[in-house]
UniProtKB/TrEMBL annotation:
Family annotation (Gene3D superfamilies): Aspartate Aminotransferase, domain 1, Type I PLP-dependent aspartate aminotransferase-like (Major domain)
Domain of life: Bacteria
Cofactor names: pyridoxal 5'-phosphate
PANTHER family per the UniProt record, alphabetical: ACETYLORNITHINE AMINOTRANSFERASE, MITOCHONDRIAL (PTHR11986:SF79), AMINOTRANSFERASE CLASS III (PTHR11986)
GO MF terms held by the record: identical protein binding; pyridoxal phosphate binding; transaminase activity
Name of the protein: Aspartate aminotransferase family protein
Swiss-Prot/TrEMBL keywords: Aminotransferase, Pyridoxal phosphate, Transferase
Record flagged with keyword Coiled coil: no
Organism: Dyadobacter frigoris
SUPFAM superfamilies: PLP-dependent transferases
Family named by the database record: Belongs to the class-III pyridoxal-phosphate-dependent aminotransferase family.
């Protein structure tokens, strides 16, 4: 009997997207996905910045198998010593062990709290900032996306997302990403500023060095924590392991997820011992999770981190991003902006963009748009993509634009 899988998808999977791609993928490897219909797709979005080391990287698979042979979940977070978790926390701290000209007043980040997702990292960081500063107000940016739960949604900078869910958390103010004049709104009442160095869902917004330095300075002056949301920009995506490395500053709290898991779900909020200790002295348990830092996800994450460093994926993505920029020159493309392999190609209009994305998929190249920017094409391939594969993808995009 023939069963229409597409119909089951629409009948029983809760739909929240107006245009679900509804591709059925049988297998994914490296930069390619293979449909159940046998069609091959070049992945230029990495599951939204997740598959940075490529799909099913052999070293990630080996680490997964090795961990599965030992144990899966044991007990709620932080009770047992789980060696992959400990090794991962050390490896993350090592990536953050450097001096900065514009440091955090609380010293280096060497303490990691693992979560299951980026959203949970945001939620944990908000609680941490409240507890540490004794303040309740937060600043975030217009058109920022930090997650869909109540706290993270409250930080969202898109009214369309928040409107139907009020009342949300009070005391949150949006400022314009990159606009130094708005830094005045960060005051001695601000618990924390939460910001993506390079705005992701706003359509890849790259600020100036001066703006980020001024932001760091302002936070230090008024005693607000600077929380960098590197959920999308971290793990090599923008040309350095963390995007903030390119801005000569050091955050007070750092958030990670997405690419961190090498394809498995994991996230983290990280800070110095001093800041993080407020959870311990709460006096009750300051924050709890059952699955955060799951040993299997931790194993995959450690392997992904090591592959990223060993293969110099961050540094190599700079030239790869430049290659995209040099190939995507067309009257219908206004600009290609971004750093490393976090790119946005701005088109004339939403109609041109939608048509281009649909036609590219029909020709076996997967691109996408952004939550809060509907005229730009998302280009965020696995960092392992080769020059040849970049040329292949851009050739298809250019062919489609010519039609
Ligand atoms: N922060 C940023 C910058 C993100 O891009 C996202 C996801 N798009 C999140 C937080 C939320 O992460 P998750 O979907 O893993 O909860």
């Amino acid at each position: 009997m023939h069963i229409s899988h597409r119909q089951h998808f629409f009948d029983h999977i809760a739909q929240t997207s107006d245009f679900p791609l509804a591709l059925e993928i049988e297998k994914a490897e490296g930069v390619y996905m293979y449909g159940t219909d046998g069609k091959r797709y070049l992945d230029l979005i990495s599951g939204i910045g997740v598959s940075n080391v490529g799909h099913r990287h052999p070293e990630v698979l080996a680490a997964l198998h090795q961990q599965l042979d030992k144990h899966m979940h044991l007990l709620v977070y932080g009770e047992f010593i789980q060696s992959t978790q400990v090794q991962l926390a050390k490896a993350l701290a090592d990536t953050l062990n450097f001096e900065s000209e514009n440091p955090s007043p609380f010293g280096k980040i060497d303490n990691v709290y693992f979560t299951n997702s980026g959203t949970e990292a945001v939620e944990g960081a908000m609680k941490l900032a409240k507890r540490f500063t004794g303040r309740t107000e937060f600043i975030s940016c217009y058109n920022a996306y930090h997650g869909s739960t109540q706290g993270a949604l409250s930080l969202s900078g898109a009214e369309s997302f928040k409107r139907n869910f009020r009342p949300l958390l009070p005391g949150i103010r949006n400022i314009e990403h990159g606009n130094s004049a708005d830094l005045q709104f960060i005051t001695s009442k601000t618990a924390a500023v939460i910001i993506e160095i390079i705005g992701g869902e706003s359509g890849v917004r790259v600020p100036t060095l001066d703006y980020i330095k001024a932001l760091r300075k302002r936070c230090t002056e008024v005693g607000a924590l600077l929380i960098l949301d590197e959920v999308q920009t971290g793990f090599g995506r923008t040309g350095s392991f963390w995007a903030f490395e390119q801005y000569d500053i050091y955050p007070d709290v750092l958030l990670s997820a997405k690419g961190m898991g090498g394809g498995m779900p994991i996230g983290a909020f990280m800070s110095s011992q001093e800041v993080m200790s407020v959870f311990k002295n709460n006096p009750v348990l300051g924050h709890i999770t059952t699955f955060g830092g799951h040993p299997v996800s931790s194993a995959a994450s450690l392997a992904a981190l090591q592959v990223t460093l060993k293969e110099n994926l961050a540094q190599k993505s700079v030239a790869k991003g430049d290659l995209f920029k040099s190939l995507l020159v067309h009257p219908k493309i206004k600009e290609v902006r971004g750093k490393g392999l976090m790119l946005a190609a701005e088109m004339d209009s939403f109609e041109v963009l939608k048509q281009t994305i649909d036609s590219c998929i029909a020709k076996g190249v997967i691109t996408d748009w952004f939550l809060f920017c509907d005229n730009s094409m998302r280009l965020a391939p696995p960092l392992i993509i080769t020059e040849e594969q970049i040329r292949e993808g851009c050739r298809v995009i250019m062919e489609v634009l010519e039609q």
